[in-house]
Amino acid sequence: MKTQGEDAAMRRLFVIGLLAVLALIGVSAQTITQVSGTVLDRTTGKVLVGASVTGGGHTVVTNGDGYFVLKAESELKTITVSNVGFRALRVRLDQLQSGDLHISLSPATIQLQEVLVMNANARELVMAAISKIPKNYSQHPELFHCFYRETAQKRQNYIMIAEGVVDMYKSSYAYWDNGDDRVAIRKGRRLLSPRKGDTLSVKVTGGPVLPIQLDIVKQRDFLLNEEELDCYQMQMEVPTTIGDRHQYVVSIRPRRTMPYALYYGKLYIDQETLAFTRAELDLDMKDRNKATQMMLVKKPLGVRFRPKELSLLVDFRQDNDVTRISYIRTLFRFNCDWRRRLFATSFTACCEMVVTGQDIASAHPIRGRESFDQRDAFFDKVDYFLDPVFWQDYNIIEPTESLNRAIARIMKRL
């Protein structure tokens, strides 16, 4: 005779199995073309992390192993692969070819006359690029489909993974206002280590609202306004390329002491259009209290938070003469120790989002309960890992081998 607990367990297994079958039926009803592979540096043979792979109206980025999987509803005849400092490569896909691709990108060469631009005034160049924002970015509302993942590690071990498919609404760049920009979670899942002591109760800045908060060309309070720019020393660096487009590179560093922490980093500006195409920023860690104010949202009483690193990457992509946000990544490193304990514990938290596609026809504002609030925790808004074919035909950032192993270990402990 079955107990009530056994009946509940059987019902739960039946539901999980039914979901998997329905998911497989959905996949078979629509033909999905898939291409996968690894992107390498042709000169060194090293994998390229964060390289952009585009095809069939969809985009993904390579993971920490240089690996990608791209899915499309129609036949993929070509894909385009690009990375900062490398020549873009258009790859023709042979229908008879099977297995993973191995794609090698060649470093881009910079001509001597392009280096001479280093004598230009960096501040004037940045201000000129700011004046071009309404022209270079979309003047109409747009809806983007994105993949989001956040992870937390205790020392070298993963203790939390949460990921999902989200929609992002962006209003027109013709105005310096992102008040209507919103993010909504469409599908997500989470996994938390059950091991005692692995729970991370410290919350750092981040979440699916990052593309709104870190959109430097629209969120003017963040960096690109005269008051903020006055806090930085700027210098022209050696130009580079993104795809086949030549880029100015402007380095920034703090030149004033402010009540809050400033950044070190680089701004990339398209030489032809003067559009901002990339920002690489690292928070100044000299003043621990200021850095903590920028990174930490909350922590338990009795826990001491010691910031180590906050790095930001914001990528934009040009498409049909319009520059759009494409990829965002934040990395936090910090130590936490509890009073009366001898040694501190190191933690790493990472958030990343890639825009995988867009829907111009359905660019309606995200309203009400479906909107994700910056005060919300993404982990609390999604369910635990269950469905073995959870992603179906969605484009995602493929997990690295180490992340896949971590997921398998945690699942065994549940």
- Across the major sheet, the strand order is 12-13-14-15-17-18-19-8-9-10-20
Low-confidence stretches: 1-29, 112-116
N- to C-terminal separation?
26 Å
Rg calc: 23 Å
Q: Which range best describes the helical content: under 10%, 10-25%, 25-40%, 40-55%, 55-70% or over 70%?
A: 10-25%
What is the mean predicted local confidence, pLDDT? 83
Tally the beta strands.
20
What structural category characterises the helix and strand content? alpha+beta
What proportion strand?
35-45%
Commentary on this structure:
The structure is a single chain. By secondary structure, this protein is of the alpha+beta class. Helix content is 19%, strand content 40%. It is built from nine helices and 20 strands. It has helices at residues 4-29, 112-115, 122-131, 133-136, 210-213, 226-229, 288-295, 378-381, 401-413; strands spanning 33-41, 52-55, 58-61, 67-72, 78-82, 89-92, 101-105, 142-154, 157-170, 182-192, 203-204, 232-242, 245-254, 263-270, 276-283, 296-298, 303-319, 322-338, 345-358, 383-384. The strands form four sheets. Strands 12-13-14-15-17-18-19-8-9-10-20 form an eleven-stranded mixed beta sheet, with helices on both faces. Strand 12 and strand 13 (245-254) form a beta hairpin. The protein is globular and about 60 Å long.
Task: Write a concise keyword list for the protein shown above.
four-stranded antiparallel sheet; disordered N terminus; alpha+beta; 414 residues; eleven-stranded mixed sheet
Write the layout of secondary structure elements.
Layout: H1 4-29, E1 33-41, E2 52-55, E3 58-61, E4 67-72, E5 78-82, E6 89-92, E7 101-105, H2 112-115, H3 122-131, H4 133-136, E8 142-154, E9 157-170, E10 182-192, E11 203-204, H5 210-213, H6 226-229, E12 232-242, E13 245-254, E14 263-270, E15 276-283, H7 288-295, E16 296-298, E17 303-319, E18 322-338, E19 345-358, H8 378-381, E20 383-384, H9 401-413
Parallel strand pairs: 1-7, 10-20
Antiparallel strand pairs: 1-4, 2-3, 2-5, 5-6, 8-9, 8-19, 9-10, 11-16, 12-13, 13-14, 14-15, 15-17, 17-18, 18-19
